[in-house]
């Protein structure tokens, strides 16, 4: 009986390993599939001015031919400034981020950085220039150190720790028995949404790119955590050309410009103060969020 039990148990382990590897492979193929949407042109050159102004010029885009997602979207993020995009779910906010990172190419109009059309530059140089803090960070089944250092291959432990400190995840890591050698991801320690976002912020801080994209999580964090994450995002965005896809209006108050997107069309734009004064869609959203966030008075 014991003899039979051991091989069966062993087979179970192998089965789980293979199943897990397949899950990882699935993820990799999904990522590769996205990579394959665009290719470098034969004469693609490295991005000359990664710290230049980001410009969306009359951009239109559809994932499927007869379902337009973005229509004639134009805006500029001057170097070092922040533009925030707000709007209902499905209005195309994250699509703007995917286009800037060039997961897809625009079908009309163009996106330029420092005046250069991003379709004419190498993808490697474009992605080197951009750091993304996505809604849901994918962690590798590897150590927490590897997961943070992924932002800058070859980073030293000191640099990784400094980034983790700044993203306020160091204390959490230090409290685990294996510290930075702790395996995270599906096969290791599972992190909460807020912790994963902090890992992504640490990665971005370490990468130190001139352009940063924040795709704010839709899932609600508790309010103390949310305020802390917002403070960390703010410090990570300091002096960087930043595109914020915001679900909470408190994130956008200081933005250079706020775009209100509805069904892929910019329906309002301006600073927080401008938009409140206009008493339109943004002002409505603001009032609604304030009411939702207000404590219940008994
Ligand atoms: P949310 O606030 O919920 O994150 P969003 O404003 O960021 O939404 P997008 O993710 O940009 O919206 O999606 C815009 C529209 O494009 C949605 O209707 C979505 O279903 C569709 N869409 C997104 N990705 C794809 C895809 N890969 N293929 C086809 N349609 C897609």
Automatic annotation (TrEMBL):
Places the protein is found: Cell membrane
All copies of domain ABC transporter, residue ranges: 54-288
Lineage: superkingdom: Bacteria
TM region positions: 1-18
Protein name: ABC transporter ATP-binding protein/permease
Organism per entry: Variovorax guangxiensis
Residue range from the parent sequence: 314 to 611 of 611
